[in-house]
Specification:
79% helix
Length: 410
Amino acid sequence: MSTAELPIRRNTILLAATMAVFSAVVQLVAAVSSLTFVLVTGVEGLLGLGPAIFLTASALTALPAGRAMDRVGRKPVIALGFLLAAFGCFLTALATQIESALAVIAGFALMGAAGAIALLIRTAAGDMYPPERRARGISLVLFGSVFGAILGPAVFSPLFAGKHLEVDALTVPWLAAGGMALVALAISAGVRPDPKVIAEQIGAATRQGPPRPAAPLREIIRRPGVIPAMVAALASFSVMVSVMNLTGYMVVNHHQHSQSDVFPIVGAHVLGMYALVLVVGALIDRIGRTTSLAFGLAVMGLSCIGLLWIESVVGTAVLLFGLGLGWNLSFVAATAELADRTAPAERGKLLGLNDLVAALLGAALALLGGAALEGLGVAALAIGATALVVAPIAWLLARRRRAVVEPELA
C-alpha cells in the first residue's frame, strides 16, 4: 500500500474520538480525585495525595508503555490503557461504597497507569504525518478532546446537582466514567493499520537505504533540541496537572462554591487545552517549536498568578481556560520537537521517558501544592506554580538565538 492509500484520515478521526471520550473521564479525575480521597479516608491534611497517587502511577507506567509501543505497536497498548481505566473507575466506585482506603488507592493507581497510556496516543498521532505537518497532525487527534470538554459537564454535573457532598454521592459518577472508558476501548479497536506501521511506511518512502537501528535513550536525549523540549514539557505538564487536580478542592473549600460548579470550570480548562488546537498546530509548524514553547509557558504563568485575585466561578473558569491554552501550545510544540528528533522505533520510549519525569514532578507538586493550599492558602499555590512555569522561558529564548538547525529524523 502506498503512503497516499494509507487510511490516515480514518485513523485520525478514530483516535480523536477516543480522546473525546477519555477526556471526559479525566475531567472527573481532576474535579473529584482530591475530594474522593478525603471523603473515603477522612484525612484532610493529605488532600494532594489522591492526585499524587494518580500521577505517580502514571509516571511508573509511561516509560514501559512507551517501550511496549515501540516493540508491539501503538494499538495494543492503547487498548490496554482504556481497559485499565475502566477497572480503575469501577474499583474507585466500590471504594466509595465500602469506604476502603486500599480500594481507592488501587483505583487511582489503575487510572493513573491508564492516563499515561492515553497521553501516549500523541505518539500514534505523530507517526502518521511527516515532520513538516507533524504538529498539525498531533493537533487533529488532540482536537477530539474539545468534544470531551462538552461531554464531561453534560454527564457529570447533573449527577452532582442538588446533592450533599457525601461519599456515596460519588459512586454513580465513577461508574459512569468506567463505562465511558469501555466506549473509548471499543472505538480504538477500529484503528488499522497500527500507526507505527504507517510511520515505517512514510519513513521508507522518504529515506534512502535501510532504516537505522533504534538508538539507546542516553544517545537520543543528547540530540540537539531534545533537552530544551523536555525541560519545557516538564514545567508545563507538572504545573498544569497539579493546579488542575487541586482546583476542585480550592473552589469548594476555599471559595465556598458548590461541587456542581467545579465541572464547568474543569470543562473550561479542557476546552482551553484543546479548543484552539487546530490553529495551534499550524501556528507551531509556522513560527517554530522554541517560540511556541516559551509563549505557552508565559500564558500559563499569567493564568496561575491570576488565582491570587479571582474567586468567582466565571473568573476561575477563564483562568483555567488560559492555563489549558498555554499548556496546549507548549505541549504540542514539545511533542512535535521530540517526534522530529526520533525515528518510529525510538519515539515511544523518548515520549515515555518525558512523561515519566513529568508525572513524577507533577505528583510532587500536587502533594506540595495540596499542603500549601491547606496550610497557607491559595496565594502559596498561585505564586509557586507561576514561578515554576515561567522559570525556563529565558533559557529557552537564549538557546534559540544561538541554536544551529539540525537534521530531523523522519
